[in-house]
Amino acid sequence: MDVFLAKATTLSCGDEDEDVLELEADTKSLETLATTAVLGRLLTRRVFSVSHMKDLLDRVWRSIKGWSLQELDTSLFVIRFEKKQHLDMVMRNKTWMLSGPSGALLVLFNWPPTGNWDKVDTSSVPIWVQVHGLPIMFMTQTNAAKLAAKAGSLMDIHNKGQEGIMGWKFLRFKVLVNLNKPLFTGCFVLCPDGGKVWAQFRYERIAALCYKCGTLGHDHHWCISEPVLVKNREGTQVWKFGSWIRAEARIRDCFSSGSSLL
């Protein structure tokens, strides 16, 4: 044991100059990667091979040619583009649904300037959110910030800086949403007359949303969870999550749909 400790002490990091090696950094390649590569996280409950992902992305990115995909770690990939305009095109959305039935969602992140992809926080993504159903008197910047805190970390408010009433139909803000948690779908808001109104949160440009558990990355057909329910004013339970969480939905809110999954 004493001999082992003696050797460990001799080889300890930094004690000897010969244990320190200075390497040459390829900064040019790092700069190139920063403008031609993105980091992708695949959210799914199924196993996808790299070749299958390429086939699916070929269908989604029909107009984009000259890109490559390489697996870095479980559910993490580097995607490189020959043209920067193609990278900019896919990053405008940042979330891409690869196939309907599988419920797989690819979330894209900027490639880090340092190249240390394993240090990138892939647990959250910025999403614009609309809040519908509020009386006009509640559509202020202060209330937008309060509501945004329920959905995630506030990043921006539409019409920020405008005093008084900020909108006629809905409030809009951008938040950093935790991908590992259910989306915040809405809440009751107390009115001055003692009544309550339902503030329905609607998320822009989202894909692969589970209508049972409310998380992104899989379809409700693949979810083993029981659906989350909420009671309306009459005490009837309805599904809390559904198509009404999407900004483009025609259904006003969860109470307008009953338990429908339309």
Short synopsis of the structure:
This protein is α+β, with helices and mostly antiparallel strands and 262 residues long. The chain has helices at 2-10, 27-36, 50-60, 84-91, 141-151; strands at residues 37-43, 67-73, 76-81, 95-99, 104-110, 124-132, 153-157, 170-178, 186-190, 196-203, 229-231, 237-239. β9 (186-190) and β10 (196-203) form a beta hairpin.
Number of strands: 12
Task: Write down the Rg.
Answer: 24 Å
Return the average pLDDT rounded to an integer.
86
What is the spatial order of strands in the main beta sheet?
2-3-1-5-4
What does this structure look like?
This protein is an alpha+beta fold. Helices cover 19% and strands 28% of the residues. It contains 5 helices and 12 strands. It has helices spanning 2-10, 27-36, 50-60, 84-91, 141-151; strands at residues 37-43, 67-73, 76-81, 95-99, 104-110, 124-132, 153-157, 170-178, 186-190, 196-203, 229-231, 237-239. The strands form 3 sheets. A 5-stranded antiparallel sheet has the order 2-3-1-5-4. A hairpin with a 5-residue loop joins strand 9 and strand 10. The protein is globular and about 75 Å long.
